[in-house]
Specification:
- By secondary structure, the chain is mostly helical.
- It has one domain.
- About 65% of the residues lie in helices and about 0% in strands.
- The chain has 12 helices and no strands.
- The longest helix is centred in the middle third of the chain and has 27 residues.
- It is globular and about 55 Å long.
- The chain starts with a helix and ends with a helix.
Length: about 240
């Protein structure tokens, strides 16, 4: 059995890869252009580009200008021109991105390759509900949603690699809501399992989700001891507090 199937707390196979993509790796290499740090920064940008694009749009820029600004910003960031501005005391990648973009000015000239899908940005932006907060508040909300979606996709991929795609499809709705509200009996019929087995499977799913969530947050902060604070902050953002 895999770690996902057994519910063991030992790190799953993706963890060694995650360990090389931390924001802390980037901060530690601000004075030296290491391949590991470049890969880490590129991956973080690839995952979290959209909240910044949406922020630029909410600041009043047109879609073409927002794409140009975002493209140029990430190009210069990946060239390691601005990482040294990161606030090591706060140490959060989301805060660094917003602060750096707020200071940035649009410049002419070519830009380097940026691993973000800007061609889909405006379609995604157009399908979102009307924003009710400030651009900064909406940026944090989108950041939290992006993080949760990233974790969900990783969890789905783990189940698919283990031949459990159907099980994940049946149980992923149980990641939200209290245990007492879960339709275990109905799910048992759908999945042709007994109710006790479904409860165990849901417990393992939630446990793995929590581990992946903490691992993802750890990649975006400079110190592991701030993971709990960041988790609480992002959930507060989503709840509107």
């Amino acid at each position: 059995m895999t770690a996902t199937e057994t519910g063991n707390s030992a790190p799953a196979r993706p963890q060694p890869v995650f360990a090389t993509t931390h924001w802390s790796v980037v901060l530690a290499a601000t004075q030296s252009d290491t391949t590991r740090a470049q890969v880490a920064l590129a991956r973080l940008c690839q995952t979290y580009w959209y909240p910044l694009y949406a922020y630029v749009r909410r600041r009043g820029h047109t879609a073409p200008d927002a794409q140009d600004l975002t493209q140029a910003f990430f190009a210069r960031l990946l060239e390691r021109h601005w990482v040294g501005q990161a606030d090591r005391e706060r140490g959060r990648f989301r805060t660094f991105l917003l602060t750096a973009m707020s200071r940035a000015q649009k410049r002419g000239g070519g830009v380097a390759h940026v691993p973000v899908q800007l061609d889909s940005a405006e379609t995604r932006y157009g399908h979102e509900p009307a924003a009710v907060g400030t651009p900064e508040q909406e940026y944090e909300r989108r950041w939290a949603l992006t993080l949760l979606d990233t974790v969900l996709q990783r969890l789905r991929a783990e189940y698919e690699r283990g031949g459990k795609a159907e099980l994940f499809a049946g149980l992923n709705s149980c990641l939200v809501g209290g245990r007492e509200a879960q339709p275990y009996a109905e799910l048992a019929k759908q999945l042709q399992m007994n109710e006790g087995a479904v409860k165990v499977a849901v417990h393992r799913l939630r446990k793995r989700y929590r581990l992946l969530l903490r691992a993802e947050i750890a990649q975006t902060v400079a110190r592991t001891e701030t993971v709990d604070d960041e988790l609480q902050h992002l959930f507060a953002v989503l709840s509107g507090r």
